Amino acid sequence: MAGLEVLFNCVSSSITCPQDVVVCFVHWEIVKSGYKCLGTGDEPKDGEKKTELLPPSWNASSELYTLRYKSSDDRSSVLFKAITVDSSMIFNLMDSATEKVSDLTINVSDYVNVENLQMFDSVFKNTEDLAQKVKTSLLPSAKGESTANSTRDRDRGRDNNTRRDTQPDSDPLRIPTRAPPSGHKPNWPDPLAPFAAGGADLDPFGGRGAGGMIVDPLRAGFPRSGFDPSGGIPGVLPPGAVPPGARFDPFGPVGRHRPGPDPDHLPPPGYDDMFM
């Protein structure tokens, strides 16, 4: 426990209770983890300097101890509090930047010999166990975890930026571009022909690569019946009268027998009454 003896001898004359001994020990563990003490109280004061020693009036109250620490590289600040509850002590350590709090509760008599409060050689008990509890339960919220969290957050932000750069569509707030599908070329008019815009609509036969205004039922792509005009129409056209594949609009009903009249084509009642 290098350094603890020097610290204890500096404050031994002011130690009045077992709680002071425990706070001195925990203070030294915080200092060993890379922090130095600024002073007492919740708020900073003028003229404070970082030191490994305990500040004046650090044990003004044996019921509540409040100390402030700052890391050696000035990147982290923590607030330490120790509260006495009967024969136990509750320690709280809060990171001022992240407001994360860690705590530890111990039984004072397990680690302090009450009969030898001013004797360093015999005042402490089970120091290795107490040091282990302080490191595992109290200090992770301080520099180690704070630095690890900041590094983890920085790496996560770098990964997110890299993923956003390599996969622009992964951003849920990004409005996708109206780009044509891959491999599909838009049917833009020739820029050298200023009057070509709308030409496909003006060409009734669709000679410009787009559909015209005249619908050919034989070439429209829709399912068609088995009627083939090139085979002739019995009683109307002989076979071969219509070339194969030629456009053909029937000029009459297909078949020998005309179907019955359409109900919509019936004459009105009394149409042949000359007196109407």
UniProtKB/TrEMBL annotation:
Its main location: cytoplasm. Residues 135-204, 227-276 are annotated as: Disordered. GO terms for cellular component: endoplasmic reticulum; proteasome complex. Residues 181-253 form the PI31 proteasome regulator C-terminal domain. It holds the Pfam family PI31_Prot_N. Residues 135-148 have a biased composition (Polar residues). Keywords: Acetylation, Cytoplasm, Endoplasmic reticulum, Methylation, Phosphoprotein, Proteasome. PANTHER family: PROTEASOME INHIBITOR (PTHR13266), PROTEASOME INHIBITOR PI31 SUBUNIT (PTHR13266:SF1). This is Proteasome inhibitor PI31 subunit. It comes from Chanos chanos.
